[in-house]
Specification:
The protein is of the alpha+beta class and about 270 residues long. Helices cover about 30% and strands about 30% of the residues. It has a four-stranded mixed β-sheet with strand order 1-2-4-3. Strands 6-5-7-8 form a four-stranded antiparallel β-sheet. A two-stranded antiparallel ribbon has the order 9-10. Strand 9 and strand 10 form a beta hairpin. The protein is elongated, with a radius of gyration of 30 Å.
Length: about 270
């Protein structure tokens, strides 16, 4: 029902959304709201050292926290007894994939037309080699003093819906990094909105050949080109106004109708 493909640095992720739809197995259904089932998977070929394709604990954890983050943004109570399934596949990874996936998933949910109170926009912030950084890559994440923090917000209310951290830092450093995250996530939010607007534009039906002529005929007193290219002034009626006199000439007179009937049965009747 909705999808999103995102490239963020070297990260390449693909998201598809199905729902709200029937919950199977049925016992998982919640009579008060929709459930969100978020499935994060990393392709075996997405990292330098082949990843075991069997889903591991890391993938279960990311799926759980990301699904819960999205639940905060969706009007779940409008769709009781249904499931919203979100499938996320990482095709290429260079750190920060959970945030790239969550950000793309929010766009895919909106693309599916599911009502949301806000998008979810994420960013990673941290430290490597003594420098505060945003959007760390794998090399920076592996620095000896590395701190890497994944943060996701509802961008309009700045409510934090996901926060995970690797490494150690002081409370002061934490506060500063959170502020950096909140300031910079705005850029992510703008890109998400632009993607949705562009996708909506692309979904508009392509113009039909000759539509301009039809549109001109349905508007009042338009000038239009005839077949030889000459400009002719059309005095057309507003199609919504009804005037019985317009139709009187085309209506069959009662006498004519009788005559035609006689002609049909050879006047035997
Ligand atoms: N990674 C890997 N093999 C794995 C899991 C992760 O090579 O089985 C790499 C991958 O590039 C990933 C990075 O380690 O992006 C950081 O992983 P982390 O668990 O911190 O999640 P992420 O930063 O991608 O959200």
């Amino acid at each position: 029902d909705g999808s999103c493909y995102l490239e963020w640095g070297q990260n390449k992720v693909l998201v598809s959304v199905n729902g709200p739809r029937e919950v199977l197995p049925k016992h998982q259904a919640n009579p008060y709201r929709a459930i969100v089932r978020y499935t994060y998977r990393m392709a075996a070929f997405s990292v330098t050292e082949r990843k075991n394709p069997r889903p591991g604990r890391r993938e279960s954890e990311i799926s759980k926290v990301s699904g819960e983050a999205l639940e905060r943004a969706i009007f779940l109570e409008r769709f009781p007894n249904t499931a919203i399934d979100i499938f996320v596949e990482v095709l290429d990874a260079n750190a920060g994939t959970r945030i790239a996936c969550l950000t793309a998933a929010a766009v895919a949910v909106a693309d599916a037309g599911i009502p949301m109170r806000d998008l979810v926009s994420g960013i990673t912030v941290g430290r490597a080699d003594g420098n505060a950084l945003i959007d760390l890559n794998k090399h920076e994440e592996d620095a000896p003093d590395a701190v890497d923090m994944a943060v996701a917000f509802l961008p309009n209310s700045k409510e934090v819906v996901l926060l995970q951290m690797d490494g150690e830092m002081s409370p002061k450093e934490f506060t500063e990094l959170m502020k950096t995250a909140a300031d910079n996530v705005e850029k992510v939010y703008e890109i998400q909105k632009k993607a949705l607007k562009d996708s909506y534009e692309n979904k508009k039906p392509a113009p039909v050949e000759g539509m301009d002529r039809i549109a001109a005929m349905h508007s009042m007193d338009k000038e239009m080109n005839d077949d030889s290219g000459e400009k002719v002034s059309m005095k057309t009626k507003d199609p919504l106004s009804f005037d019985a006199s317009d139709y009187s000439e085309t209506e069959l007179e009662e006498d004519t109708a009788d005559a035609e009937h006689e002609a049909f049965d050879g006047g035997k009747e």
